[in-house]
Amino acid sequence: MAMTDSWRDGVPQAVQDDMDRLFAVVEPFALRTISRFRRLIPFGAVLENSGETRTVGSVPKKLTPFTLAIRGMLVEGLRQDRDSLKAVVLVEDVAVEALNSDAIRFTLEHRDGPAIAVFAPYSVGPWPRRKVTFEPGTTDEGERLVWGD
């Protein structure tokens, strides 16, 4: 799956390269995880000012509602570290009404560029094999979670 190119208009090449690099860190793991387990616990990755990438995750103290708690903890941690970061990506398993599908949502945000959301819609086949099929991805404007107001 690849990001569609519509978000690239007017975005400096260095910012595009940073976001492509960060997407490449998380995308294969997210697709494999959905294919294998049919679900995904939110996680992310960061591109540090030094140029290093690292994955990030969180485990809440309470398990209800599990994924919302993890998402909130990830966003809060990223906000606290934002001065040392160039770009971030948050990866979540979501239901997308407009696509009438479940999807992996990759929310990418760059300190000096845009926030975009990349959706990888998927469906799970019938029992017993339950094969996962991915549909063509879409890219949309994302929410500024880390460098927003």
Report a brief summary of the structure:
The protein is of the alpha+beta class and 149 residues long. It has helices at residues 13-37, 66-81, and strands at 43-48, 53-56, 85-96, 101-110, 115-124, 132-134, 138-141.
What's the arrangement of secondary structure elements?
Layout: H1 13-37, E1 43-48, E2 53-56, H2 66-81, E3 85-96, E4 101-110, E5 115-124, E6 132-134, E7 138-141
Average pLDDT reading: 87
Order of helices and strands: HEEHEEEEE
Q: Helix share of residues?
A: 25-40%
| Oligomeric assembly | single chain
- The gyration radius over C-alpha positions equals 15 Å
Give the count of structural domains.
Answer: 1
In what range is the share of β-strand residues? 25-35%
- Overall structural class, as computed from helix and strand content, comes to alpha+beta
Could you describe the largest sheet, including whether it forms a barrel? 7 strands, antiparallel
**Number of DSSP helical runs:** 2
Features:
single chain, 149 residues, alpha+beta, 28% helix, 33% strand
Characterise the protein shown here.
- The protein is an alpha+beta fold and 149 residues long.
- The protein has one domain (5-141).
- Helices cover 28% and strands 33% of the residues.
- The protein has helices spanning 13-37, 66-81; strands at 43-48, 53-56, 85-96, 101-110, 115-124, 132-134, 138-141.
- A hairpin with a 7-residue loop joins strand 5 and strand 6.
- The protein is globular.
- The model has no long low-confidence stretch (mean pLDDT 87).
